[in-house]
Amino acid sequence: MRLRKILDSSRLLQAIVSFFALLISITPVYADECKVMKVTGSMGWVPVLMKDDNGDIYGLGHDVMSNISSQLSLPFQFVEQPWKRALLSLQQGKVDIIIGIYWTKERANKYYYSSPFLQNEARVFVLKGKEFKFEILSDLVGKAGDIPLGGSFGEEFDQFAKKNLSLHSVGKKTEHIVRLQKGRSQFFISDYFDTTSTLKTMKLLDSIVPLTKPVSTTQVYFAMSRNSPCSSRAAEVFNAIEWLRNDGTLEQLRQRYLNLNAP
Question: Looking at the chain, which terminus has fewer C-beta neighbours within 10 angstroms, N or C?
Fold first, then answer.
């Protein structure tokens, strides 16, 4: 009994040490260098990040970032760049934050993650009249499909696709649509809300349709670099998101943008 108490005390001590080690890992080592947060993200991702006709950035993610900036009295600067370069910049500490990113085990080893601020649904899109049965991932085997360059649709899909599917990575969302129309692909996978918004703008809602079953339902997060000068403020940034959630601001912003961009 005495030995068990000693072992239990030892495990508790190890847990306490591990907890404080985590806190120390995000202590303000570079705090005096973090004057402006450099942020990036996938521009044109409805409703996360968009540009108006004047080139001004708006969207749910941008509004959340603006609220974080105000709470921390710390300005931010948006750095626009292609998605794969954005991920590399975050890993290298050239930018501090990505607005709008999915969680994967590999990424979680490279970045700090917030709690989710949006839930996203990925769907299979096909030409109307060429729908096919899609109930499980294996229904996609043998078909030519497109996915966004550098995109992820959750661990289960990513692992299955790597081993079993023939997928072509495409940089621009309009290229998915063109390739489908020209018969170069049989389907493409993309965010449901973002894609239907694009199809509505292009007046293609009647010719390109989503299959009923989602490929995945995925949470969307903020991620912070472990290597940037502002990494020491990760806890503050993520706590600011929780304040927005708890006082109802986050849900108000979500509803505003979902209603604004509804198909």
Answer: N
